Amino acid sequence: MTESTKLLEEFQELYEVTKLCYQCGTCAGGCPVFRQYPGFNPRRVMEKLLMRDFSEQIFDDQQIWYCSMCYTCSVRCPQGIDIGHVITEIKNLAVQMKNAPPGIVAEMEAIMETGVTAAISKGIMKRRETLELPELPPPNLDEIRKIFEATGAAKYINQIKEETS
Fold first, then answer.
1. What is the distance between the alpha carbons of residues 81 and 63, in angstroms, rounded to a whole number?
2. Residue 71: exposure state from Cβ atoms within 10 A (0-12, 13-18, ≥19)
3. What is the 3-state secondary structure (H, E, C) of the chain?
4. What is the pLDDT of residue 7?
5. Domain boundaries, the chain
6. Which of 36, 79, 107, 123 is most exposed, with minimal Cβ within 10 Å?
7. Which residues contact 86 (CB under 8 A, 6 or more apart)?
């Protein structure tokens, strides 16, 4: 099975999940990102799937990356569609198609190399101490790298690094 055939099948599975959507707009109405940035609209994402827009356009549209994964859309959907999960799957497919924004790739690389996207500052450590919170355990880089290998993310990051160097 070719990669594009596999992606098309996965896209078809997303359609099956979304075909109950009747475009009521509840997802967009409750979306905190849409209120601040109307360029991102979960209803439009669902519409593309309903129209069987299986073109690469849905992956080229960088708007999907604005989703904050709050799942308000999923909780409020009167049809019980897990829209947040659908958007996550579209993001996963976009990554498989090597179409993630550079910032996302940089975060993925940071997690793979260090286990975190940002270092914990001395101020935060001091604040934790003041609040009598336990010391943060170091990330298990072996486990993180296994996940990156198993999901293909490590290969993707390495390809991006090679293309940009």
1. 20
2. middle
3. CCHHHHHHHHHHHHHHHHCCCCCCCHHHHHCHHHHHCCCCCHHHHHHHHHCCCCCCHHHHCHHHHHCCCCCHHHHHCCCCCCHHHHHHHHHHHHHHCCCCCHHHHHHHHHHHHHCCCCCCCHHHHHHHHHCCCCCCCCCCHHHHHHHHHHHCHHHHHHHHHHHHC
4. 66
5. 3-96, 102-164
6. 123
7. 14, 17, 18, 45, 46, 49
State the chain's mean pLDDT as an integer.
87
Helix axes 153-164, 141-151, angle to 10 degrees: 80
* pTM over cut 0.85: no
* Domain 3-96 indexed as CATH 1.10.1060.10: yes
Q: Which residues contact 92 (CB under 8 A, 6 or more apart)?
A: none
